[in-house]
Amino acid sequence: MKRCIIISGGDLGDQKKIKLNITPDDLIVAADSGYLHALRLGITPHILLGDYDSMTLEEAGKTLTSATQVLRYQVEKDDTDTMLAVKVGLEHGCEEFILLGALGGRLDHTIANIQALKYLLDRGKKGMILAGDNTAQMLCDGSMNISTEEGFKFSLFSYSESCKGVTIKGAKYPLQDYTMTNGDPIGTSNQVQPGKTATVSVREGVLLIVTSFD
Fold this sequence. Notes:
Layout: E1 3-7, E2 27-31, H1 34-40, E3 47-50, H2 57-60, E4 69-72, H3 81-91, E5 96-100, H4 107-122, E6 126-130, E7 134-140, E8 143-146, E9 152-158, E10 162-169, E11 175-181, E12 198-201, E13 206-213
Parallel strand pairs: 1-2, 1-5, 2-3, 3-4, 5-6
Antiparallel strand pairs: 6-7, 7-13, 8-12, 9-13, 10-11, 10-12
């Protein structure tokens, strides 16, 4: 499964907790000032794109080499830089997407990046927002396992108008065949039971699953 790693200009969180295990088959795309994050992480992107309103190409300076393709877009455009990167990844045939630097900073961009996960889900692709202390992903009409680490919590939110048949097993706060709505934060701040793996399932609807470390 070809993977696209998108590095945006938001908060990376604790960089020591970011484990990517980059392979030669991965496509790495830096969105605007996400290029500066890539440099800090020691990553050379295959593609740098954006309208360069948060970073000028002059700021990239001599660090840019022929190994990085540069794409420039107008400031007045329909897509955010991160969404442009998602679409470029799709054009390259990627099936799995990891978004770094997609949280924090401007709230509108954080919401837009979460919507990018839904955009990928609608196209049958896997997507995850990854920061040092938080992750976000979506689950539609299925189930997934959640493992545990010290200080780790997970939360479920109905991203669709409602999620039917929400069940949580192996967690401090279990749930059975519950109908969750997008105005109901009952799934906030749960914990996996010590020594267990929690299972989250939804019969109908789209769940936003967020994990966080204290």
